[in-house]
Amino acid sequence: MKKLKRSARLVEMTQYLLSRPHTLIPLTTFADRYGAAKSSISEDLVIIKEVFEDEGMGELMTLAGAAGGVKFIPKIPKDQALVFAEELCSQLQQKDRILPGGYLYMSDLLGEPSLMNEAGKIFATAFADQEIDVVMTVETKGIPLAYATGAQLNLPVVLVRRDHQVTEGSAVSINYVSGSHKSIHTMSLSRRALKEKSKVLIVDDFMKAGGTIQGMVDLLAEFDAEVAGVGVLVESGEVNTEERLLHDYVSLATLTNVDAKTKEIDVKPGNYFTKK
Fold it and tell me: Which domains are seen in the chain, by residue range?
């Protein structure tokens, strides 16, 4: 039990809520933690709720009843998300990102915690109303984004392997066609990593035709699991609709053109900002 002044209690309660998103916290938890009356705790939560909403940090939901409490739902307003997307596009347009073969270097951005946390918060906002059990990605570059999204949704992360690891026990493996190269690849998932009938949010760093993500969708079918949504940091806008293997997804940036000769890169905010 901690006896704190109200100002200090408000700070600690806020931190407590921020570190436990999508978690129902009974009022008695705070009352016992601070040795305060529930009525005082309720007043504090009203103040915190107003700050969260006014600052665009998210929602503080209150559930009434004996089994009730409060739950913090991280959300970012679309205008704030657009500022992030425009900054992401600006960084992606740097000429020195073009690699041989017209590929785009993104590893530095994917390794930036603050950037990935913000992207994760946007995905958490986009899929806040979906029932999700786990976040999934394929190794390796999408891992930081998946963990950032999982942290905002307070969900575990499941990693699909390109090569089966002996230390993960028996696994389900499938072959899939890479949409960009039209070549056959293999991906696998440990049988212990995912429960049957799970609802899964797939997250990946880049999508061209969608072959890799479609492979994950097919792999989930082997677990009788359901795809709750798909989020990609950057999608290629150079792929025809007929060639796209996936159509229902959320993207934060769209790469429309990479000219290796002129070193010109065109990127615009993704479909998250045009979806209704």
Answer: 6-74 (1.10.10.10), 78-273 (3.40.50.2020)
